[in-house]
């Protein structure tokens, strides 16, 4: 039995324990069933002459079939390519052409898009509804598999918010060390459980809790789409112990009618990240539900479990992303590659077995991002005297106005300290006078709040050259499919306003 075949191990140790539950299908698989079903799918894929290194592109919601497919791919050395079903047919087509899959799998929810893709032109075989091939088969096997740690297991395409989407290669080695880091930080055991509502095309949908809990023989609940009220009820009903949610999701949950009534006493931690986790959000959940939110930091190219702030430090170190997880090294460097001192801002770099070997079909991008084993994250950060880390902002987000380096996240923090402002996002645009200038988009709890009042409040807390040139008050901030701010939509909104002037 291979040491990386966690499903086979738990099928031997606790065969009747429920491994995965789909709350959409109202159906569960035990560890024994997950093991057997994956082996049946191995047999079917072998009949299709799939070989180690072949890619399988998937356009489907997260759930039971995806989990069986994951175990199958790991055992056969196949590479799983989860595609973003929220993208247009044109965008998905480009990714399919880039990864050149040998097999394309889709479910009925995305059949319309799947049928418009250039699958036949590329001579790619297709599957719909995988469970037909493994649940009804009587095939049983005691076959064992050698899972190679350096074999690619996933290709995750980045969102493309900073350019063309890039395929990040994710290996079995990354899977193992990320699971170990996550488990050590949170003390995960086989008694734990989670509910995953994050999509499969995002690394967090697999590697924040799903694969670490699979490694520990714990229980994984699956919900295809985030529903704030439903998830609160499920967390209580299932006595869930660990949960991952972006700040936007948590805000939606606390506004639901059932928030005050649900009993979440079994919930040990909520992990949050993906964007800045406001200290007010952490305090609210601690006060109202006595639940600890642990902010952290991760990215597609590493982990994604890279840092974590211990729950006892959230009030002492507000806005910190914590300290590095156990099995990795970090440094913060200036433009000359020299390590900076505490409180000096530089680029955060990561080294360890959780770092990707590179980008699919993009050796130039790989060599630019990974140097002598160090991943240059593109995030500006600094540390305090005790080694706690703070993100200053994306390297690509920083702009220079009148010769001064300006970090949008610093302005956002000041804006959100204004009592009437719920959320703030700052972008930059070209400016004839200053080179670049800032645009702020805010939402407010006070419908009478004016831009003039916001500017007056900023005067007391922010030096004048950092003030946004433009401020817009919106009903809501647009978000992406994984709950992050959609900067693309905000830019389109601003450009539309400019064109009307």
Automatic annotation (TrEMBL):
It holds the Pfam family AMP-binding_C. The keyword Cell inner membrane does not apply. Keywords: Ligase. Residues 9-360 form the AMP-dependent synthetase/ligase domain. It comes from the Bacteria. SUPFAM superfamilies: Acetyl-CoA synthetase-like (SSF56801). InterPro entries: AMP-bd_C, AMP-bd_C_sf, AMP-binding_CS, AMP-dep_synth/lig_dom, ANL_N_sf. Belongs to the ATP-dependent AMP-binding enzyme family. This is AMP-binding protein. It comes from Winogradskyella echinorum. The lineage of its organism: Bacteria, Pseudomonadati, Bacteroidota, Flavobacteriia, Flavobacteriales.
